[in-house]
Every structure is written in C-alpha cells, then in structure tokens.
Amino acid sequence: KAGKPYRLALVVKTRNNPFFDPMIKAFEQEARLLGAVPEVQAPEQETDKEKQFSMVENVVAKGVDAILIAPADSRAIVPALKKAQQKGILVINVDNRVDPTESRTQDLRLGGYVGADNQAGGMLAGKALVQALGGKGKVALLEGIRGADNAEARKRGFEQAVAGKLEIIARDTAEWETARAYAKFQSMLAANPDIQGLFCANDKMALGAIKAIQEAGKKGKIAVVGYDNIADVKPYLESGEMVATIEQRPDLMGKYGARLAIGVLDGVIKPGGEFLVPLQVIKKEP
Length: 286
Hints:
single chain, alpha/beta, 2 domains, four-stranded parallel β-sheet, 12 strands, about 20% strand
C-alpha cells in the first residue's frame, strides 16, 4: 500500500492506438489497488507532440506527485519534464524512452524506466521475417516516427537481424499511422513490385500495408511482420497475411509503472532503476 494517496498522472501518446488500452487499464487498477489516485492524459494522435507537451505542463501546473510519461517525441518533451522536476514532481518514463543525451543536457533526472528493449524486439521481428522468407529475399521497412527512441531502436534491431540475408530495397516512415502506411506502401509496391517481405514497426501500420497488398492483388504473397500484438491483427495472423508480430506486454508497463512511482515516492525503491518487460514473437496459433 502507498504511504499516502499519491496523485499519479500517466501521459501516453494517444488513446487512438489500442496498444495503450491495456497499459492504461493496468496502471489505473494497480494505482487504485495500492491506494493512489490515478489520472490519464493523451492527445488524439500519436503525432501531436505539441499537445502532449502542453498536457504535461497542465498536469505540472495542477500539481501531482508523479508523472509517468510515454513520450511522443523523446527529445522535445524534456523541457516539460524538467519543469515537473523543478516543482518536486517525480518523473517515471514508460514505453518509449526519453532521450538520454537531452536529459543530461537539461539535467533531467528520471525516477526510473519501465518498458521494453525495442532493439531486441526489432531483432526478433527481423529474425521472424528471415525465417518466413527462407533466409533470403527483398524486403521493405515502414518505420515509426523518425527520431522517436522506440522507432529508431526497432529499426536498428531489424537491420542487424536481416544484414547479409535480406535486402532492404525500400523504406519510409508512416509515423505509426494506418492510413499513412496504406498510402506509403501503395507507392512502395508500385515502385518495387518485387517486394517479398515487409516489417512494420507497429501493427497499426501493418493494417494499412495489408490493405494495400490486398488491393494490389498480392494477398498472402508478401510476408508481413508487425509489432505490438494488438487484437486487430489476429485475423491476419490466422489467414497468413501476417507472419508474426511482437508482444511487449503494455499491461505490465502500466502495472509496474504505478508500482515503481509509488515505491520511489515511499522511499522503498531507489530512483533511477529499470524494469524491462518480456518480449515474445506471436505467430499463427497451431
């Protein structure tokens, strides 16, 4: 139980991505269970970095005991978090990492991190695609928001896993969005009709790409690997239109984020620690 009814504010990237639903639910449930008072803020879109920045500022102005942040922009969010620190508010980082270089520059000291090793996740995705294509082939890459720590880490991991095996012949960012991925992959396919595989750095982009693949008459002919294991991709894993996705337990991020914040506030957990959630490759159920 918490030493007192701490007010905890979780600020995520958006409620518009089903990935965040289990994180929010688990955070609220665990915080209440431990006697804290949770609140959740989120912009409409994952690309709305300015809105997230102002949400953090508003939470700081209102006054809370801790802010748990899943930043839309790893670097640009730092000044808002620094203001929180100056007011004596604990800052816990969840999911996408706050940029460590920018944090050092502005002397932002995080209370801890709860999330996944995104580079390791990217490697798992790359290995799954290598396996699906029998060790060789031409592939494309749809990235998340460039500059975001999780997008860059997934890309690095993927590139490492496929190096010397698969040839990346096309790449672009669809900024985590389904509609953008649909349009971008239509263009990619038109320019590169020989694409045999695709890694999408999240499942929402995979959904858009799959639609483009279907419309190009290539259903089931391009091996697609996604990331997040949202419920919407299950039918495509079953149909074989998607060969794999990566599960990274957002529920545990929410649960342990709340626990970490309360533990640091109570003085029973030393600030600055990390909790990494397990990653798992999800394929068609046997």
